[in-house]
Amino acid sequence: MKVYNTLGRELVDFVPLNPGEVGIYVCGPTVQSLPHLGHGRAAVVFDVITRYLRWRGYRVRFVRNITDIEDKIIAAAAEAGVSAQEHAASMTRRFEAAFTTLNVEEPDIEPKATDHVPAMIDLIERLVSRGLAYPADGDVYFRVRMLESYGRLSGRKPDELLAGARVEVSEAKADPLDFALWKSAKPGEPYWASPWGPGRPGWHIECSAMAAQYLGEPFDIHGGGSDLIFPHHENEIAQSEGVSGKTFARYWLHNGMVNLGGEKMAKSTGHVVDLTEAINQFGPNAVRLFYLRAHYRSPLEFSEELLAENAAAFARVERFVERIDPAVAPDDDLLARFVSAMDEDFATPEAVSVVFDAVREGNRRLDAGGNADGLGAGVAEVIGVLGFSTGARGLGDLGEAVSALAAELSVPIGRPVDSLLDDILTLRNQARQQRDFAKADLIRDRLGLIGVAVEDTADGARWSRR
Question: Which value, in Å, is the radius of gyration of the alpha carbons in the chain?
């Protein structure tokens, strides 16, 4: 198996630290606003990588964090008139709902930054004691020029760097390139006690602390979007290796961005396509197929036409699988070609082509009166490894989906679907009356994801099946 390691910019053999075991840490979302299509891509990419490694027999420990304290979360919460904690919790639920509908498996461990501040403070103290960091006016900064290896992940040398995205300028810094490990709290902001006064952790320190806690050092794979290579991942390496003297992560995998009109989707600019809306309109399998027909490292341009094409394409796969008996052995050649594709840096475009080639050949055999059960069983197994789900809109029976949502909302189940939907809508109306709009919007979005539309009218809210 080969992977493209951003650290070195080359395709290399993948050899886990411990035979048969793989530790993966992926930078999860910063929950400042609603999930967009770019967030979905990162989630699906590493979901597929994890699923495939497990299918190949590896024991995988997958950690994906949630950044629930950060400057932009605080700003968004202030604008919404709620606490940073409330805002982060509300947005986290929206991310979880969208990822679940995309059939993204939950990570083995999903640490939140706010639950690990003591570990971050401990790491910062060790950096200060080694002279790699210094306090300044209640803040603490990392001395970038103290680490000779700084820049090897991004290929940037310190003298070539400029303060840019998420690299903050401050008069308290000894050097403009130094980055914040700890930030003193401004009036009204959330804070934790620390040796340097009340404040909160910087963005970069959280992943260094949590990855080491749950995977140790070194671990096998660190993943995330290519926009995180610099400064976030570069700074993680500096912090972690500066303290331990060990390799932090052995392989660095980065997914490409989803672009809209040639520009990267970004919450900071509002240049985004809402993930939940895309799933509602085209279905989760269409969105997943849209991601996987491009190589994970390549940029991907959004268009509604592409999503519509992928919805139709996956429907052809489902129709073929419905024509065969899956209770037979999968076609060996099909599985071998799938493995060959995925073993070459998780090349999902080639893996998807294996599926569609098999569907075409299988339909040809069936139309000619022949047997295609082996191909069909192979297709069913492969689309399972790629994380596709079968059934209406990729969620199975509507009754099961509604019952699951009702149980989650503490609505009594074991009754007809229409009654459950009425009660769920009543719960939403109560939330609106109590001005808990975050909960009301969450219920509406969750209903939309299972194919139930909610319309607010002058006579009250109504639901309808799509």
Answer: 24
Kindly state the tokens that stand for 112: 């939140």
What's the rounded Cα separation, in Å, for the pair 380 and 322?
10
Cα(144)–Cα(167) distance, integer angstroms: 12
Candidates 42, 39, 60; CA nearest to 51 is: 60
86 by DSSP, 3-state: which? Answer: helix
Residue type, 389: S
Distance (Å, whole) CA 338 – CA 241: 37
Q: Is there a cis peptide before residue 16, judged by omega within 30 degrees of 0?
A: no
For residue 445, what are the CA distances in angstroms to 38, 95, 453? 18, 11, 9
390-412 CB burial, b ≥16 within 10 A, e <16: beebbbeebeebbbbbbeebebe
Amino acid found at 84: A
Identify the residue whose tokens are 């599985």.
335
CA distance 186 to 183: 9
- Listed in sequence order, the residues at least 6 apart from 345 whose beta carbon sits closer than 8 Å to its beta carbon are 2, 3, 4, 11, 295, 297
Identify the bridge partners of residue 22 per DSSP, sorted by sequence position: 60
Amino acid identity, residue 336?
A: A
When pLDDT is cut at 50, 70 and 90, the band that residue 371 belongs to is very high
Quick: pLDDT tens for 278-303.
988 888 999 999 999 999 999 999 99
Average pLDDT over residues 31-60: 97
